[in-house]
Write a structure and sequence with these properties.
Number of domains: 2
Low-confidence stretches: 235-239
Enzyme class: isomerase
Protein name: Pseudouridine synthase
Family: Belongs to the pseudouridine synthase RsuA family.
CATH architecture of the largest domain: 2-Layer Sandwich
CATH topology of the largest domain: Pseudouridine synthase
Order of helices and strands: EHHEEEEEEHEEHEHEEEEHEEEH
GO molecular function: 23S rRNA pseudouridine(2604) synthase activity
Distance between the termini: 39 Å
CATH class of the largest domain: Alpha Beta
Strand content: 25-35%
Mean pLDDT: 90
Keywords: Isomerase, RNA-binding
């Protein structure tokens, strides 16, 4: 039975389907020695190579959560010396699900399971992500109310969300969307600069018990919980990912 090329690549654990499409667009993928196109399908016996190297069969799935410190970049690009893959230094090739800005901290998942990545990144799933944010000056009700009701960034209005003041210049925010640098951009529009941003929760998973810079594997029960949370994942991909 044949499968789409990006799914075939994803199923090997090499990268997500989205990243696979990029490799194909950059003419770095071949099927049986011929340059591949996005619409290609892979049949049993076909030899798929990326950058001239044949894809290996998928190894056992790996799911881990990292409490990312500042200074680590959520990229698999080894040219970036601060890339998250080298930081974790796992024996299996893994990649991050979504992103956190280099200066941001907190919870991020990494895996070699491309299907999980696609389910989490699909728009419209409404998965909650909770952050604790500190700003460069005192916040007030006007600021909190504006953040709750939506701020115009990147040509759109952010979705209404939960925001609660936690201190003079600190607040909690729970997002169900992941526009690029969303919280920082929202604050900037309102005249505030983010000085600290920590993601403390994704869905029902938190940083509790994971020191900054450390990681741990999902437990079998947590993997079951994750699959349960994702079972109704929409089948259409959107522009929003699991960024901040």
């Amino acid at each position: 039975m044949d499968v789409s090329l990006n799914k075939y690549i994803s199923d090997t654990g090499f990268c997500s389907r989205r990243a696979a499409d990029k490799y194909i667009e950059e003419c770095r993928v071949t099927i049986n020695g011929k340059d591949a196109d996005k619409g290609n399908r892979v049949k049993p016996g076909d030899v798929v190579k990326i950058d001239g190297e044949p894809l290996k069969k998928k190894t056992a799935p790996v799911y881990l959560m990292l409490n990312k410190p500042k200074g680590v970049t959520c990229t698999t690009d080894v040219k970036d010396k601060t890339n998250i893959v080298d930081f974790v230094n796992h024996k299996t090739r893994i990649f991050p699900i979504g992103r956190l800005d280099k200066l941001s901290e907190g919870l991020i998942f990494l895996t070699n399971d491309g299907d999980i990545v696609n389910k989490i990144l699909r728009a419209g799933n409404g998965h909650e992500k909770e952050y604790i944010v500190t700003t460069d000056k005192k916040i007030d009700f006007e600021f909190v109310n504006a953040m709750r009701n939506g701020v115009k960034i990147l040509g759109t209005i952010t979705k209404p969300c939960f925001v609660k003041q936690e201190g003079e210049n600190r607040f909690k925010i729970i997002l169900t969307q992941g526009l690029n640098r969303q919280i920082r951009r929202m604050c900037e529009v309102l005249g505030f600069k983010v000085t600290s941003l920590k993601r403390v929760r994704i869905m029902s998973f938190t940083t509790k018990g994971i020191e900054p810079g450390k990681w741990r594997y999902f437990t079998p029960n947590e993997i079951d919980t994750l699959n349960e949370l994702l079972k109704n994942s929409k089948k259409t991909a959107g522009e929003e990912g699991m960024g901040e």
